[in-house]
């Protein structure tokens, strides 16, 4: 059976949206009908345009009411995402979730973070998402799976940091300001500091996998996603920079093992450099140069510390070896020395033995 043409699929999508909106208007409870309508409008089947700013703003407004309303909003959005088989609806749901992470109120973000996972390989349950209705949607499906993993890592990062990583250039969230982050970071234990650097580098590594989809640049939905992800990268590198500066301040307190772990994390970040340039060329400014320069300095400093530590360890081993040799030398009986017994069971520590000419002992 031949697949329907692009125009027919778009027409079916428009009709389906109208039917869903009508159903929501007629059968939804009065206090939730506006919520369901807002989600349907923001996540339409239209393949050409991302969610309208007004529709996103309407959804975000439900985070300024009761916790019950915010919970209903997240539940409706997640059901819409997990029940759809349409790639355009799915990517618009993810864009809406991304906007909640970036600009949503605390109550809305909180409901998103505690939404229960119901299977699949990741929190958003899109590891097996496939839309095979056309070659375009088949390719877009792989992009959607990657985007879901990025947002999943966002949720994981928020648990480690204690707040949602957001686009600090456009967000008013007080947790994102440099001063607030620096104060929080200065109170961390060394292990916690390394853990936060590790998860931020992990987020950048996941973002960099988007280089597989550079040929999707003309798609408006993909372009919208990459604009949001660009803000995430900026926030992640800023967070890393703040934490590396803190590491430099307390470098003397790091153990040899912690230093080795940090070197490994920084090498992972350096491995992302070329991909970052491909993804965000001319969009990330000179701030990134500061980060790469600081990473190089840190590696040099840690390398010197490592060499010094290895030198100290070699000196200790050499000294211990010399001490052991000296102790061993003292324990070897020289010719002509008397035999001494260390046992306390003998009444004499030193026993002379003589033999007369006839061979008798006395």
From TrEMBL:
Q: Which GO terms describe its molecular function?
A: 1-phosphatidylinositol binding; clathrin heavy chain binding; phosphatidylinositol-4,5-bisphosphate binding; SNARE binding
**Gene3D superfamilies hit by this protein:** 1.25.40.90
* The entry's keywords: Coated pit, Cytoplasmic vesicle, Endocytosis, Golgi apparatus, Membrane
**Compartments, as annotated in UniProt:** Cytoplasmic vesicle, Clathrin-coated vesicle; Golgi apparatus; Membrane, Clathrin-coated pit
* One GO cellular component term noted in the UniProt record for this chain: clathrin-coated vesicle
Q: Which GO terms describe its biological process?
A: clathrin coat assembly; clathrin-dependent endocytosis; vesicle budding from membrane
Asked whether the UniProt record includes Membrane among its keywords, one would answer: yes
Domain ENTH: residue ranges:
27-165
Its name, as the record gives it, is: AP180 N-terminal homology (ANTH) domain
Q: Which organism is it from?
A: Macleaya cordata (Five-seeded plume-poppy)
> Lineage of this protein's species?
Eukaryota, Viridiplantae, Streptophyta, Embryophyta, Tracheophyta
